[in-house]
């Protein structure tokens, strides 16, 4: 799991990296400010970002908003020396996983990282199935929707005015693109997609 540490103070970045290394997270990338991070990081790779709230150029709050706006799978944790409860609540509503005050304790950081790891994995799964679904043709999407609604191949064929064989081919192609082998897996994945 990659950890991005975004802070304008090198001492804070170094001490954060030391702490996350102690917790067995060894893949760490440091960024001087939010702008560099947003422009340079892969926003669709599962990762955790530890963001300083107050930075020049682009503060932590703006970074959290941009991550959400861009549909990023990175789970942000806010780090601040100036804990303001109202700001924390807003940030948590906007997608931050946790809000930690400096100096951060190892136990709180460990809990926040575990929560963020679960969140980025969930976001990445949702992003992946959305991307897979976008690969389906319009007809494959229609057939998938009707399979999800519980219709048989014959009922789907009648509704779409196509042959049963066409429905079978479209369903098979959609299942392949969604990386599932059984009808049950297909329905579960379509269900997951509906929840995204």
Automatic annotation (TrEMBL):
Highest taxon of source: Bacteria
InterPro entries in the record: CheY-like_superfamily, Sig_transdc_resp-reg_receiver, Tscrpt_reg_LuxR_C, WalR-like, WH-like_DNA-bd_sf
Species of origin: Wohlfahrtiimonas larvae
4-aspartylphosphate: residues carrying this PTM: 52
Name of the protein described by the UniProt record: Tetrathionate respiration response regulator TtrR
One Pfam family here: GerE
Keywords: DNA-binding, Phosphoprotein
Keyword DNA-binding included in the entry's annotation: yes
UniProt domain Response regulatory: residue ranges: 2-117
Ranges for domain HTH luxR-type: 129-194
């Amino acid at each position: 799991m990659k950890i991005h540490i975004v802070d304008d103070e090198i001492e804070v970045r170094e001490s954060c990296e030391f702490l996350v290394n102690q917790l067995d997270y060894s893949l760490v990338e440091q960024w001087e400010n939010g702008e560099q991070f947003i422009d340079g990081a892969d926003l669709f790779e599962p990762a955790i970002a530890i963001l300083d709230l107050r930075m020049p150029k682009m503060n932590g709050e703006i970074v959290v908003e941009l991550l959400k706006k861009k549909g990023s799978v990175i789970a942000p944790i806010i780090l601040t020396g100036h804990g303001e409860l109202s700001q924390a609540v807003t940030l948590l509503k906007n997608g931050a996983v946790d809000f930690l005050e400096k100096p951060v304790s190892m136990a709180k950081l460990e809990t926040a990282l575990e929560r963020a790891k679960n969140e980025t994995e969930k976001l990445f799964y949702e992003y992946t199935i959305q991307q897979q679904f976008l690969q389906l043709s319009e007809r494959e999407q229609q057939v998938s929707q009707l399979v999800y609604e519980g219709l048989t191949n014959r009922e789907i064929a009648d509704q779409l005015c196509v042959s049963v064989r066409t429905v079978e081919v479209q369903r098979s192609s959609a299942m392949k693109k969604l990386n599932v082998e059984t009808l049950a897996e297909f329905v579960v994945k379509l269900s997951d997609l509906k929840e995204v």
